[in-house]
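Q: Structure tokens for this one, please.
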Amino acid sequence: MPEMRGWRLVKTKRKDSAFDGKGAGLFGGRWNRKGEWVAYATSCAGVAVLEVFVNLEISSLSDLRSIHYTIIGFTLHIPTYTRITRDQLPDGWRLDPPPKTLPMMGSQWFREEDTPALLAPSAVVPQEEIIILNPSHPQLKYDVFLEEEYIFDPRMVKGEEERG
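A: Here is the predicted structure, written as tokens:
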């Protein structure tokens, strides 16, 4: 049985429902359509931070400090997973918004329900993988080994107040 570690960075107010897939289900994502409840994770804690950071709408350090996050480390205990490699992806797959083929690929995996996890290259760090979890899959099993407050490094944003 494959065992792998994964990471999620979530708003602290949502940490108790971090694996329910609600956010992606309500809004859709790079690898899923609206209505498909999946939870996005990564294979690396740093990539989890970057994946969230690139989607934040912040302009100053005070904006960054006003958001409270929790980083969750977990171990997956699943019999198998599906993997999409970079050579399977269309040109422009890293663009925002992504090509329509990406959510189509994720939707196909979701609908077929063959595996509880889909691994795909990160659009932020293509050499790393994201892990898309199907919370309703009967074979999805995981144990949380770390849950702690995450504070963004203030050097990640240079707002007006920091320029003096």
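A few notes: The chain has five helices and seven strands. The first strand starts at residue 3 and ends at 11.
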